[in-house]
UniProtKB/TrEMBL annotation:
Pathway annotation from the record: Purine metabolism; purine nucleoside salvage
Lineage: Bacteria, Pseudomonadati, Bacteroidota, Sphingobacteriia, Sphingobacteriales
SUPFAM superfamilies: Purine and uridine phosphorylases
UniProt subunit comment: Homotrimer.
CDD domains the UniProt entry points to: PNP-EcPNPII_like
GO biological process: one example: nucleoside metabolic process
Name the record gives this protein: Purine nucleoside phosphorylase
């Protein structure tokens, strides 16, 4: 894997010249609008990058965007990968390793998720304070390469507290409802049953989604600080569970996206 990471990194560097990003951004479902705030210098299609996996979802663009956001050099993944697409955990997290090799010092992650907490409503935001991993595999399974990180990485602070506090302050200053909570990662692609939503709430979850955690594990493995935020696109309340479609989820995410963009933009400006 190390050879593949180096090959991919070298190719990207050959295309972006002396551009060194300070921050990496992973944009979730319906949340690609942040790209409009970036002063773009270079765009690379995933399909043109050696060994770089491609998103199979029609609502994920599949581009690496290099440019300036809030005065900082950034690289944004417009389109992420999911375990339910059939990729291995190593493939899903491969881009994170490449972004670290390109020079990023902090990883910012966004996603669309379903609320498990009755106090957290559809269309609101939730900064991720911690997570519960219910996905069946871990991206660190297999022989460990000490050049990438330790065999047993610590996960006592997977999401950096100082970034969480800054984000909540930014939200409050802009009258944005933004909660802090625990994200539960499941496999998908189906949404959950009433009994599953109830179980996820009982074990401590505030929101549930199908991404993010593999990337966060690998970022921590490589010593990369992480900030993550969810747009709550639907409500998994067993006592009043309503059917939801992907189209509805994308619509809610798109409506909430400007609030998420504002928080991320102001947070990145503080780096």
């Amino acid at each position: 894997m190390l050879d593949n990471i180096q090959t991919t990194t070298n190719y990207i560097k050959s295309r972006i010249g002396d551009f060194v990003p300070e921050a990496g951004i992973i944009l979730g479902t319906g949340l690609g609008g942040l790209v409009n705030e970036i002063e773009v210098e270079k765009q690379l299609m995933y399909s043109n990058i050696p060994d770089f996996p491609m998103s199979t979802l029609e609502f994920h663009s599949g581009k690496l965007i290099f440019g300036t956001l809030a005065g900082k050099k950034v690289v944004a993944m417009q389109g992420r990968l999911h375990y339910y697409e059939g990729y291995s955990m190593q493939q899903i997290t491969f881009p994170v390793r490449v972004l670290k090799m390109l020079g990023i010092k902090t990883l910012f992650v966004s996603n669309a998720s379903g609320s498990l907490n009755p106090a957290f409503k559809k269309g609101e935001l939730m900064v991720i304070d911690d997570h519960i991993n219910l996905q069946p595999l871990n991206p660190l399974v297999g022989r460990n390469n000490t050049e990438l990180g330790p065999r047993f990485p610590d996960m006592s602070e997977p999401y950096k507290k100082h970034l969480i506090e800054k984000a909540l302050q930014i939200a409050a200053a802009n009258n944005i409802t933004c909660h802090k909570g625990v994200y539960v990662a499941v496999t998908g692609p189906n949404l959950e049953t009433r009994a599953e939503y109830k179980y996820l709430r009982i074990i401590g979850g505030d929101a549930v989604g199908m991404s993010t955690v593999p990337e966060v594990i690998v970022a921590n493995h490589m010593g990369l600080p992480v900030f993550a935020i969810s747009v709550l696109t639907d409500e998994g309340f067993p006592e009043d569970l309503k059917p939801v479609s992907v189209e509805e989820i994308i619509a809610v995410a798109s409506q909430a996206e400007p609030k998420l963009t504002l928080i991320l933009k102001e947070l990145i400006a503080t780096l």
